[in-house]
Amino acid sequence: MSDVLFGILRKVTTATISTMLLKKGIRRCWMNGPKPLSARGEAIVGRAFTLRFVPVREDVATTESWGSAISTRAAIEEMPAGSIAVADAMGVPTAGIFGDILCARMKKRSVAALVTDGAVRDRAGVLMSALPVWCAGVASPASVNGLTFVGWQQPIGCGGCAIFPGDVIVADDDGAVVIPQASVEFVAKEGAEHELYESWVFSEVENGVKLPGLYPPNEDARARYEIWRKSRP
Amino acid sequence: MSDVLFGILRKVTTATISTMLLKKGIRRCWMNGPKPLSARGEAIVGRAFTLRFVPVREDVATTESWGSAISTRAAIEEMPAGSIAVADAMGVPTAGIFGDILCARMKKRSVAALVTDGAVRDRAGVLMSALPVWCAGVASPASVNGLTFVGWQQPIGCGGCAIFPGDVIVADDDGAVVIPQASVEFVAKEGAEHELYESWVFSEVENGVKLPGLYPPNEDARARYEIWRKSRP
Amino acid sequence: MSDVLFGILRKVTTATISTMLLKKGIRRCWMNGPKPLSARGEAIVGRAFTLRFVPVREDVATTESWGSAISTRAAIEEMPAGSIAVADAMGVPTAGIFGDILCARMKKRSVAALVTDGAVRDRAGVLMSALPVWCAGVASPASVNGLTFVGWQQPIGCGGCAIFPGDVIVADDDGAVVIPQASVEFVAKEGAEHELYESWVFSEVENGVKLPGLYPPNEDARARYEIWRKSRP
Amino acid sequence: MSDVLFGILRKVTTATISTMLLKKGIRRCWMNGPKPLSARGEAIVGRAFTLRFVPVREDVATTESWGSAISTRAAIEEMPAGSIAVADAMGVPTAGIFGDILCARMKKRSVAALVTDGAVRDRAGVLMSALPVWCAGVASPASVNGLTFVGWQQPIGCGGCAIFPGDVIVADDDGAVVIPQASVEFVAKEGAEHELYESWVFSEVENGVKLPGLYPPNEDARARYEIWRKSRP
Amino acid sequence: MSDVLFGILRKVTTATISTMLLKKGIRRCWMNGPKPLSARGEAIVGRAFTLRFVPVREDVATTESWGSAISTRAAIEEMPAGSIAVADAMGVPTAGIFGDILCARMKKRSVAALVTDGAVRDRAGVLMSALPVWCAGVASPASVNGLTFVGWQQPIGCGGCAIFPGDVIVADDDGAVVIPQASVEFVAKEGAEHELYESWVFSEVENGVKLPGLYPPNEDARARYEIWRKSRP
Amino acid sequence: MSDVLFGILRKVTTATISTMLLKKGIRRCWMNGPKPLSARGEAIVGRAFTLRFVPVREDVATTESWGSAISTRAAIEEMPAGSIAVADAMGVPTAGIFGDILCARMKKRSVAALVTDGAVRDRAGVLMSALPVWCAGVASPASVNGLTFVGWQQPIGCGGCAIFPGDVIVADDDGAVVIPQASVEFVAKEGAEHELYESWVFSEVENGVKLPGLYPPNEDARARYEIWRKSRP
Question: Does pTM surpass 0.90?
Answer without folding.
Answer: yes
